[in-house]
Amino acid sequence: MSWNWSWQLGLASFLATVGALCVGENRTVAQIAPDTTLGSENSTVTSTGDVDAINGGATRGANLFHSFQEFNVNEGRAAVFTNPAGIENILTRVTGANPSNILGTLGVAGNANLFLINPNGIIFGQNARLDVGGSFVATTANAISFGDRGVFSATNPSNPGLLTVNPSALLFNQIRAAAIQNNSIADSGLNPSSEFTATGLRVPDGNSLLLVGGDLNITGGGLYAFGGRVELGGLASAGTVGLNGQGNNLSLSFTDGAERSDVFLSKGAGIDVTASAGGSIAVNARNLKMTEGSYLFAGIEGVLASENSKAGNIDINATGAIDLNNKSMIANQVLPGANGQGGNVNISASNLRLESGAQINAFTLGAGKGGNLTVDVSSEVQLIGTSTDSQSSSSLTTSAQPDSTGDAGDLNFETSTLRLEGGAQVSAVTFGAGKGGNLNVVAHDMQLSGTSNDGRPSGLSVSAERNSTGDAGNLTINTHTLWLEDGAQISAATFATGRGGNLNVVAHDMQLSGTSNGGLSSGLFTSATRNSTGDAGNLTINTGNLLVQDGARVSVESSGTGTAGNMTLNARSIRLNNNAELSANTQSALVDPDSEQATINISSQNLFMSGNSNIFTNAKKENVIGGNINIDTDLFFAVNNSDISANSKNFRGGNVRIDAFSIFGTQFRAAPDDRTSDITASGANPQLSGSVEIDTPGIDPNRGLVNLPSVPVDTQLAQNCNPSNNQNRSEFIVTGRGGLPPNPTEVLSSDATSINWVALRPTTENQSSLTSATHSTARSPVPIVEATGWELDRQGKVILTASRVSAQSHNSWQSSTQCKPR
């Protein structure tokens, strides 16, 4: 907790204590004391037993105005405003210098809306209750505006003029508005379906409850407007908050100009508007923090809902950060048995952080469709870990829950940076008969790492879970940089009869690295798991650079009776290093013989494999054909036992087709060899093996061949070139095309390199130099060093080098790779 929050809470506690002491000293005067600003229309207070009846006031059309020097309600007492006929709004201002302490019951003897205005602060104690027939607005604004008719001000009080229209705005003129504190846990009656007792401040079902101040602190207290609207917000500097609506349906509107205040919910504080229809929550703040199991709930109640029921939305708009921790939750839900359409959850902030099992959800438990979850965060979305009991992951989720029949909503995500760690999840899931939602995650940078303590991966996922019958949605990712490490995963899966979703990724750069401590591979996956009957989805990646290393995987798979999807990789460069894997596995036979499954299609300018990395398809069951592997690349480089295989253990292997300009380090073999980099397509026996087709259009071994002469070439060597006994012997062998023609008598070809010749019979002019060479000290030639690296020249050709060449860059797609000599 920051010093600012501590200071606010400390001030609120101090003011509450002072208010309570004042009430105790002189209950009648200190509790409710009218001022004289309304002249002959001053408010009056009549006390009967524990009830203070408030009468009088100034009537202007359907508005009734009251003004007080002090306004407090002691614990065990009730302050009730009379509601003359025709009055729709009762507006109460406090002109003194003290906050209002509402420790008992605040009510209206009728259905008018009640406005309480105190610029010095408003505090609701643990036993505070509302007993109103309309909506309730508590605000620490200086004044309420009535359009062009004027204002009703608490800091510049005057007799209200012709304020006959509905209030239109709350005016904040102070440098920093005072806080509103709610600690109420008072019994406020059963919820509409009589399933639980609401504890806290409550307005009648369908009405509005608005708290508008400086900082808002809800500590263990509750706010309820079942089927209505609860709205929290305020300003930290001078400005205006719009007040909208007719009758009992009130709402706020915030402009972008003024600085907003903070909203803080703690110790299990909650807001609930769930009903048979309607019910909305809005928070407009600078920072929203929810901790210790605090919650915001909206949705459709099952017992009273109809097919036409529609829930309201939860809208959170923070100019700063939204921070939820320790199982705090924001959820819009269609409850069991409910029909209709669930409401949406809309999150807008600069930063969003969920940790220790905090969740933001939109889901259905009934026949109605779940709402959508939309997250729009301008900078660091960060989801961290699980709850301390490991029961819940920090997550953003849309879902159709077990025994539901409605479809789940979509999850739409846009941010600058997304970070998931410690088992945190972003997911769209179905556990029921309805379809799972689509997950659409737009981000400049995405970083996913690690697993929870019990092995759940951090990740993004769409799935049809066990015992569900609905199809999973699709997962679409658009990002600049995608980084997965230490067991983090992105997946689209089916565990049941429904179809698994497709996984589509568009990224500038992708890096998949490592495994978890428990051996879980980082990677991207589409799958139909064991005992499932649904088909798995396809996996498509479009990227600039793809790096898969240190045990990471990209995989499409079916271990059930459904078909596996296909993998399509389009990249400028693909590097597989140190036990990396691209795989497609199936045990399902295709119904349509003309279609494909478990096929890998790769299109890349450069494909590099090293360190026991593999690209393979595999049929794991009898009478199942293995998937094909199709590779189109300019440069294909495979070393250190890195294999390509399209195999079947029990039936026919798939086909391998490689179309490359240049291939290094690998070759076709009938069976894999653990010591070399191989290309294989094997089946249960040689007759069931697949085919391997390698096309290298950049290399034509038949081009420019000539017949070497059948007689030795008459080549003469200068006498002084004969080696002595202690010199190394050298040989000159003509092997084919190059700087010299096959026969010295022929002319140089057009693409040969010109060489300056040295005469074999020295003349007088060069005799001295030859003699000098004859008597020079013999030196052994520099030993030949095996090539350990490579570079690309201007034409894109590979040059093998003994060490990394320090040369001018020729627009290479990446830096050189170092190889170990054998």
From TrEMBL:
Region described as Disordered: spans on this chain: 386-412, 447-472
Segments forming domain Filamentous haemagglutinin FhaB/tRNA nuclease CdiA-like TPS: 33-147
Signal peptide segment: none
Lineage top rank: taxon: Bacteria
Stretches that traverse the bilayer: none
SUPFAM superfamilies the UniProt entry points to: Pectin lyase-like (SSF51126)
One Pfam match: TPS
Compositionally biased tracts (Low complexity): 386-399
Record's compositionally biased regions (Polar residues): 448-472
Stated name of the protein: Filamentous haemagglutinin FhaB/tRNA nuclease CdiA-like TPS domain-containing protein
Phylogenetic classification of the source organism: Bacteria, Bacillati, Cyanobacteriota, Cyanophyceae, Chroococcidiopsidales
